[in-house]
Structure formats: structure tokens, C-alpha cells
Amino acid sequence: xxxxxxxxxxxxxxxxxxxxxxxxxxxxxxxxxxxxxxxxxxxxxxxxxxxxxxxxxxxxxxxxxxxxxxxxxxxxxxxxxxxxxxxxxxxxxxxxxxxxxxxxxxxxxxxxxxxxxxxxxxxxxxxxxxxxxxxxxxxxxxxxxxxxxxxxxxxxxxxxxxxxxxxxxxxxxxxxxxxxxxxxxxxxxxxxxxxxxxxxx
Length: 201
What we know:
By secondary structure, the chain is an alpha+beta fold. Helices cover 41% and strands 15% of the residues.
């Protein structure tokens, strides 16, 4: 019997599925799917999926650093002036660097308390809207924004089916249930199809 092991919190983050998005007829950029699965009480949603572009990661790091001056934040992958979105190696190297960045960020309890991080990972709000929400300039709270995004983007039918099978008599309306769901990559690959492109690159 290892009750401590059963209660151990985890956060799994995957940065994957890079896609080229057209900004206009002349400009394109790549965004990445960020998949989160966790049983941590720090998170409003236990499973989420959003798409973010490199410029938004840069914004996130700057905001986290300004709010946690004494913490040495991990670096983002360096901005390569010769970055070619048609070069698989370039794209995958950046994707790996972004995943390592988030993995390290999510290990720090102080950074986990920053609402911007949760909005970044669990909503599709732009940086401007995230700032407005955190500073109380919106009609919705951080939790409202996360729940609203989740209800508009229900892309995890497998999670719902698992919950119904395991908890027939339980309240199945609680979507932020921390039922230790651990889907394989195959079962979660349907996570994010295409989300509206953000305003930053």
C-alpha cells in the first residue's frame, strides 16, 4: 500500500502538431498545440488543449519573469534568424525547446500561481485579453475564461466516456474532476483541430 504514491500530483505537457497558419497573403507563422493533462489542484481544468505561436511564448516568459524577479526562468529556444518553417529540423528543434521550457515552468510552485500561465495554457485568449482578465478589466474571471473555452471546445469525448463508465452514479457534470485519466497519444490526438489564429506570432 502506497497512499502517498496514489495522491502524487502530476502535470503532463506536450507541445506538438506544428502547423503553418496564414496571417495574410504575404505572411505565415507556425503555431503549436499545447496539451495538458494533470491531477494538480492548481489547474481549473484537468485536460486542455490550445494552440500558441512562438511570439506568445516570448510574451509569457516576459510576464512570468516580471512577476517572479528572484526566479531564474528557463530560456526559450533561441530565435534563429535563419529559421525556415519548411525545414522540419528547425521546426522540431523549436517544438522541443518550447516543450522543455513549459516542463520546467510547471515544476515551479510560485510560477504555477500566476494566472497568466493558466490562461496561456487553458484558453485561446490573446496576450492583451489575458492581461485584461488578470487585471480585472473583463467581466469574466480567470476561472470563467477557462471554463468558457472548455465548454466551447469540447474535444475530449474519450474523457467523458471514461468518466461515465467509471462513475455511473457520480455527478458527471464535474468536468474538472481529477479522475486519474491517462490517455495514450493515440486517444488524445484528436485534441485540437484548428483554433482561431492569435494576433501575435
